[in-house]
Design goal:
Chain lengths: 111, 110
């Protein structure tokens, strides 16, 4: 089992552009959450998907949106990128209150 | 509001010395508390959770509801314990949303 996998590993975007990050959950997991981790900070919850619907959302603007597919994989989309969106984006998966597993993350740099 | 505070950004100890990483929380309810660890170039992984009351890699943490604390302790630190440690909480209702502290970087010197 590869665990939670994320792509791409690193990417650089220009202000105003849009980005899509992808996540495949650990085998058997049906709930996917996304976190943003700025440099020197702990991860901050963006939103969570379960049964292809957004179940919870953190304090992030509507520029941040997501999707979950029938195979439980998920995408995080960020529109109109700002310099402040530069961060490590972590995907986490779980099933029914069990241990939450994290991916290695996608490093986004906005220039 | 839910908040997790880790007052020490950096903590340095010598091998064999006791180590305590502090964590205080603010939560209106009964949270579940966790410690996550991130070793160099590795992903964030669960170290322990208070409901399991396990000791992992020699680390223990006791939930003190009166002091709203969940400090992580190890009696004898090892060099391989050097890592970034994050305290986190979630709602016991199983929302599976984690609120993290800013983390403490532990360095164990030989």
């Amino acid at each position: 089992d590869a665990g939670v996998t994320q792509s791409p590993t690193h990417l650089i975007k220009t202000r105003g552009q849009q980005v899509t990050l992808r996540c495949s959950p650990k085998s058997g997991h049906d709930t996917v959450s996304w976190y943003q981790q700025a440099l020197g900070q702990g991860p901050q919850f963006i939103f969570q998907y379960y049964e292809e619907e957004e179940r919870q959302r953190g304090n992030f603007p509507d520029r941040f949106s997501g999707h979950q597919f029938p195979n439980y994989s998920s995408e995080l989309n960020v529109n109109a990128l700002l310099l402040g969106d530069s961060a490590l984006y972590l995907c986490a998966s779980t099933r029914s209150g069990n241990t939450i597993y994290f991916g290695e993350g996608s490093w986004l740099t906005v220039v | 509001a839910q908040r997790v505070t880790q007052p020490e950004k950096l903590l340095s100890v010598f091998k064999g010395a006791p180590v305590e990483l502090k964590c205080n929380y603010s939560y209106s309810g009964s949270p579940e508390l966790f410690w996550y660890v991130q070793y160099s170039r590795q992903r964030l992984q669960l170290l322990l959770r208070h409901i399991s009351r396990e000791s992992i890699k020699g680390f223990t943490a006791d939930l003190n509801k009166g002091e709203t604390s969940f400090h992580l302790k190890k009696p004898f630190a090892q060099e391989e314990d050097s890592a970034m440690y994050y305290c986190a909480l979630s709602d016991q209702g199983g929302s599976e949303k984690l609120v993290f502290g800013k983390g403490t970087k532990l360095t164990v010197n030989p």
